[in-house]
Amino acid sequence: xxxxxxxxxxxxxxxxxxxxxxxxxxxxxxxxxxxxxxxxxxxxxxxxxxxxxxxxxxxxxxxxx
Length: 65
Description:
Distance between the termini: 72 Å
Oligomer: single chain
Number of helices: 2
Largest sheet: none
């Protein structure tokens, strides 16, 4: 494996970092809001599934006893 001298390595790192395209403030805000909305929808979905499963189990246990 070839070794790279530290100066060359730093130059390569700076060249790669300069290629990064940073998101705008608007893009960050939009994706953040979308994450919160999806998290809320997921929480509601699993709460409803939990209610259905709990109701089903209570019905089964009520029918057995």
